[in-house]
Amino acid sequence: MKLLKISAAAAMICVMATALSADDAKPKRVIKNNMDEVYNTLPKSVDNLGEAFTEGMFYGRLRMNAFKFDWDNDNVAASGNKDNKAFGLGGSLIYKTAPISGLSATVAYYYSNSPFSSLREDAADVGKVKSGKDTFSRYDVLESGDWSMSVLGQAYIQYDVSKTSFKVGRQIFESLLTASNDTKMIPNTFEGYTVTMNEIPKTTIRGAYFNSQKLRDHTTFHDVLTYNEIAADQWNGNDDTPVHQGLSRKNLTKVGKEENELIVVDLKNKSIENLVVDVTYGSVPGLLSSLTGELNYKIALGDKLSLTPGVRHMQQFDNGAGEIGGASLNGALGVDKTPTTNLGYKDRFDLDSSVTMARLVLTDGIFKAQVAYSEVADKGDIVAPWRGFPTGGYTRAMAQFNWRANTKSTAAEVSYDFDKAKILDGFSTVARYVIQDFDEAKQAGGVQADSNILHIDLIEKFTPTLQAKIRLAFVDADNRVTGNINKDSYNEYRFELNYLF
């Protein structure tokens, strides 16, 4: 298996190296600032099976990510924190066949390696690595000492008819609840079925049914919700940071729910001029569901200047998950625990909850300013471990999860595109400041201390296919109530390179 990984990686690197001299004036694919993929060129329809493969297209990517995480209090004994670093080098190769009678296929191979011991932590400390953990698999490092990841992350068949598209297999699905979140080395992908319909004018309706998920730092697919608390299989289930740890394999097995599915249905409508309506329904049958509505209305203030007020409300419904895992995401209120209090939550076994947010966006296409606010109901925590962030686009800052119960967040954001302004070729920047007001009474249930976050992105697009990005985060947090310990303040530094061909 190791020889196969090395051979596959070598083959991919050779192909990528050959492409470095290719003309990138008109890229086949670009990545947005949030790292979502946009395909500018797709294979054209053909008439026979042979041409479906010979007229197919390859899409390559070389990438590098480096991380430095500097805790304000890195005394492991006192705070549990340890300063950490990480480094990833790799890329991806995607192949799409040409459609024949509407039928096509896509496969995507991803590779990441942390080859330099001086740029990473020791194997014994992989559990202390924060943002950089997605450059390797913690499970593989501890099981076999393997710092590389080799994954067939996408493999699906697609059928297009009229204005409807069906996909079956491993795939990316960008939505309010699910996302590739491809900001590291390998995207978050899902296995199942999706359909996208544009039959109704100015309306897109989508549906997804997923029976497994592969997080960014995993090499295998796993259940969409089950947290694996067993030490021997640690980091081999849904171990995403905001996962509900009370919905553990042990707890869910007792009620026959260790295997689950995720259903997502959403609608986007632009029938009313300048108004965008979004509705999203999500469900893990037999455990919990949610319904989210969002409105954004664009008001023209001039030829280019516009003001867009937006609101979003997410209502979470407890369909049995609360009685198993409890109201807190850290699992301390689950049926397998014996807490002496409700740890600051109103109802130990209730996951009914909601989060409401609003924003104002002022932009002229070059400059953008935004202010936003979000508030989570003082009920259960919001369960959303699929890399789509409930407060994303409103009050979420990099690496922060501000949808714990009774959390209030205020955010201000400014971005400027120096390239569009013809000041600096290819350069743009984003700065975001977020004030997070958590519920101190819930710190025993894993809620962090109040904090102020400054997050800055500096982006340079040297060519349409070569991009560098520096990401900085400075977090100033209060001390925890218990023990008066500073556990949540840190500075974080990221550097990434992306080359597409």
Write the layout of secondary structure elements.
Elements: H1 2-19, E1 29-31, E2 37-39, H2 49-54, E3 57-71, H3 76-79, E4 84-96, E5 103-113, H4 138-144, E6 148-161, E7 164-171, E8 189-197, E9 203-214, H5 249-254, E10 262-269, E11 275-284, E12 288-297, E13 299-300, E14 306-318, H6 321-325, E15 353-363, E16 367-376, E17 408-417, E18 427-437, E19 451-463, E20 466-477, E21 490-500
Antiparallel strand pairs: 1-2, 3-4, 3-21, 4-5, 5-6, 6-7, 7-8, 8-9, 9-10, 10-11, 11-12, 12-14, 13-14, 14-15, 15-16, 16-17, 17-18, 18-19, 19-20, 20-21
What's the β-strand tally?
A: 21
Radius of gyration: 23 Å
Average the pLDDT over all residues and give the rounded result. 94
**Helix coverage percent:** under 10%
Oligomeric organization of the protein chains: single chain
Classification by helices and strands: mainly beta
Order of helices and strands: HEEHEHEEHEEEEHEEEEEHEEEEEEE
Q: Runs with pLDDT <50, length 5+?
A: 1-24
Compute the number of helices.
6
Q: Give the DSSP E fraction (strand runs of 2 or more residues).
A: 35-45%
Shape: globular
Please summarize the sheet with the most strands.
18 strands, antiparallel, barrel
- Please report the distance between the alpha carbons of the first and last residues: 28 Å
